[in-house]
Amino acid sequence: AVHGSRNLQTHSQTEVLDSKNLRIKLVLLGDSGVGKSCIVLRFVRGQFDPSSKVTVGASFLSQTITLKDSTSVKFEIWDTAGQERYASLAPLYYRGAAAAVVVYDITNPETFLKAQFWVKELQKHGNPDIVMALVGNKADLEYQREVTREEAQTYADSNGMFYIETSAKTSDNVNQLFEQCTEGDIAKKPKHSS
Ligand code: GDP
């Protein structure tokens, strides 16, 4: 069914509440220290506040945005599965996830390798329709960059992910990251009415 300009028959993991409301469970993965909590805080509260950790146990934050076509999208954001100490539980988190955001720090090549580990995990245990984003965070630290855009883009392309660089500090591309998760959802994996 097409409602306005947007085909709302998206893949099974996105809940279509009604023609103008979607709900997307989104999980964040990546090495600790890459800025996952800061990205979420920037998105949800519009702040950069590294001292205020939101990751406590299995809690999540939610944030609703309105897209250009006035569709409202409620994100339920899980920020726990990316921590190593929860690695064995991670499949429980991403099982029902419509989107997975895999974050690394552009100044730290080890975190890029860790991101690749999480991508493989998602490919093994995630739902096959999951929208995956590869996020190079701390883009404000360009002068300390150690992972090139090219290698990240190439990796993302060969793994069916979209790639974006963000800065939770300056807020660069943070909203775009989440918006693009809904675009990937709808544009990349269109499903027809069943
Ligand atoms: P997490 O463990 O992945 O949740 O990482 P945090 O969100 O706790 O961030 C770890 C550290 O990285 C914090 O001390 C932040 O100050 C810093 N940080 C996070 N995002 C950015 C960013 O975009 N730019 C810079 N320069 N520092 C960041």
From TrEMBL:
Asked whether the keyword Secreted is assigned, the reply is no
Has UniProt tagged this entry with the keyword Chaperone? no
Any single GO molecular-function term of the entry would be:
GTPase activity
Alphabetized, the UniProt keywords read:
Nucleotide-binding
PROSITE patterns cross-referenced by the UniProt entry: RAB, RAS, RHO
Superkingdom of origin organism:
Eukaryota
Protein name listed in UniProt: Rab5/RabF-family small GTPase
- From which organism does this entry originate? Physcomitrium patens (Spreading-leaved earth moss)
